[in-house]
Amino acid sequence: MAAHPADPTPGPDGPVPAGRRPGTTVAWAVAGSLTALLLLCAASLSIGAGEVGPGGALDYLLNRDGARADSRLALVVGDLRLPRTLTAVLVGAALGVAGCLLQAVTRNPLAETGLLGVNAGASLGVVAGIALLGFDSGYAYLVCAFTGAVVASGLVLLIAGRTGGGSPMRLMLAGSALGATFGGLTSVIVVNSAETYDRFRFWVLGSLAGVEGYGEVGRLLPVVAVGLLVAALVVRPLSALALGDDLARSLGHRPQLVRLTVAGSVTLLTAAAVALAGPISSLGLLAGFLARAVAGTRLPARLALAGLVGAAVLTLSDIAARVVSRPYEAPVSVIVALLGAPVLIGIVRSRHLASMGMTDPAGDERREGGPGPVSRLLARLPSRRARPARPKRPGRDAATVVLRGGPFSLLVGRRPALAALGLAALGLLAVVISAYAGQSDLGVSRTFQAVLGQGDRFDVLLVQKFRLGRITAGLVAGAALGLAGCLTQTLARNRLATPELLGVNDGATAAVLFSVTVSATGTFGAWWAGPLGALVAVLLVTAVSGGLGQRGYRVLVVGLAMSALASAVTQVIISRRSLNSASSLYVWTSGSLNGRSYSVALPVLAGLCVLVPLALVAARHLAVLRFDDSTASSLGAGPGRVRVLCMLLAVALAGLAVGICGPVGFVALASPVIASRLAGPLRVPLIGSMLTGAVLVVVADTLGRIVFPGTELPVGVVTTVLGGPFLLWVLLGRSAATRV
Predict the structure, then answer these.
(1) In the structure, what pLDDT confidence band is assigned to residue 426 with cuts at 50, 70 and 90?
(2) DSSP tag of 384
(3) Per DSSP, which regions of 314-399 are E strands?
């Protein structure tokens, strides 16, 4: 039967209303984007510090009255603005197309070179080339960026190709792990070279201010052209791949070859963009999402629109960077982050997410009195696969011991108690080794004498004031992070949930740096700034996402957006300071215990004395909250109150820890996982998580002091380099459970 003309006609993303012509809509969108890009290019040529307006720029372009002979016009327009505008168009188009390709090949609307670690891999290659090989040219940067991007792209596609690995949140978390690991390796290089850091701190922000003449653009233009050509050639097989590998093979395509070809195109485009303008994140995500919203699943139109949108957004950001802080220039990546954060939020709140595989089948649960807001936080992240209960053996109840004292009694599990004792002994051993190890080799006997206040005065000063003070700061910071991670993971019923995913670390870091900037002494005396910044970050994520846990992915993506924005603000603050001040602040923002002492650790120690007993009181209710809310309520627990209390405890603990040693990554993630393995799955390992976090931070700090003789790695760099592979293992290991 023929369809009635008034009936909706099927489209690639669902029914298309009558009267709507997708081809016409796309044509108008392409025409509008092209017009906007041309207008922005004209504005870019007319705005800047050279006081040459639209008339002068037009005179130069048309060479009216021999305007090109004017040396001032030739310098401002011909040598500065025109090459810079062309670079913005080129880099924006490259990143837009690269983001669209990644979204298509991974079938993930959140895929982007920045979020998936490709930018970080390219950046690592460039920094390694600068510091280790002495490279200082566009082609050399390109080769290094290409090498790093190849490694990152290959790992991303390897993860996406695993069973369940390409799901939106799993791929984003894996990309975050890759990006963090590459970033940690970059920091290893940067902190050991003041010259490399001085160049890196401006380049890492992403900027077009250094573009002069057509040399670099001309050399890298063929690379971008090849990447765009490969993208155009792969459109048809990539469109077939969207139908599934089996159907694509039946149509004569080879899925693995298609993926490798796409990886090559993405790598070329990303490497050229990073070599020209530094790492600029979120642009590919923004361009790809807007292109998909207009063109649907029509890949050729999506690629064209993504390239135009990326070029237009980067050109607009570059114009804004010139005018928002005159006579200085703002980093273009900050402007892109300001534009990209609302788009990320729009993505997770979009009505079209059902067609993108980003919805939660949790409606029934909420309607029937399921978990409250915070419990649904990150609930769709991969969690541990449920295992069948083992039959109890005779004497199983003997695994617990009752301790009695007068009218009070305490039920203690043997396994958790033994695990806690073992962790305490390991912590003591870590403290002894850390007090002994360092650049000044004291020997074991001299170290113990200095601990007791005996021996040489210099030894006593070094051990008691510096090393033991630093160790104490590391112990309390690690304990706070471990406890914060345990609370968050228990609330979310998921071992991948950490305060870092809510933007807590980056928010606290930005707040502490802001307090340093406005402080008259320029010191880290404002210990309260960390918890305050963490609380503000969580409140913003809560408000913007429409309530904690409305959908797990919503909180995750908004948290990542807030983290990117706070990180950009942090980099701007650092870039505006002198080299010596910026270098010390950069080390702290990498997570460092250098210079930390008893006085710095006291606020966190006092906080732990208050917060730990509260957490222990809530431990019984936390164990009950592992069941659904109706069961918890029937057992006398108040799920809403317990969740709010524990989330505030976790935020305060993480903020205090950041105030001591900066954003030390992955400790809050790894500590509860390790402690749970030791104490058993039926316990909430609060004490074990604290002890594990303390041991991890002290051990990482010790490794940072002894790995490279004559230099020191920040503790956060060590935990990041080691924690990234740990997160990938948790994500992709066989025990990582439910695929989302």
Answers:
(1) very high
(2) B
(3) none
As a whole number of angstroms, the distance between CA 740 and CA 733 comes to 15
Q: What is the mean pLDDT of residues 504-511?
A: 84
Asked whether the predicted pLDDT for residue 307 surpasses 90, the reply is: yes
d(C-alpha 48, C-alpha 457), whole Å: 61
- Is residue 690 within 8 A of residue 657, CB to CB? The reply is no
Beta bridge partners, 412, equal: 401
CA distances from 518 to 423, 514, 527 (A): 41, 6, 14
**Mind listing the pLDDT tens digit for each residue in 630-686?**
766 666 666 677 777 888 888 888 888 888 888 888 898 889 888 888 887 667 788
Look at residue 147 and give its three-state secondary structure. Answer: helix
Task: Tell me which residue of 173, 233, 218 sits closest to 501, measured CA to CA.
Answer: 173
* pLDDT beyond 70 at 168: no
DSSP state of 546: T
The pLDDT value given to residue 362: 37
Which of 567, 174, 196, 191 has the alpha carbon at shortest distance from 382?
A: 174
Q: How far is CA 569 from CA 412, 413, 537, 580, in A?
A: 47, 47, 13, 19
Residues in the chain: 740
What tokens were used for 412? 């203690």
Q: What is the pLDDT of residue 363?
A: 37
Q: Which amino acid is at 422?
A: G
Q: What single string gives the DSSP state of each residue in 61-85?
A: HHTGGGGGG-HHHIIIIIIIIHHHH
| Plot region of 52 (φ>0 → left; ψ -120 to 50 → alpha; else → beta) | beta
pTM above 0.85, yes or no: no
Instruction: Compute the distance between CA of residue 502 and CA of residue 548 in angstroms, rounded to an integer.
Output: 10
Got the DSSP string for 699-712? Answer: HHHHHHHHSSTT--
- Strand, coil or helix: what is 33? helix
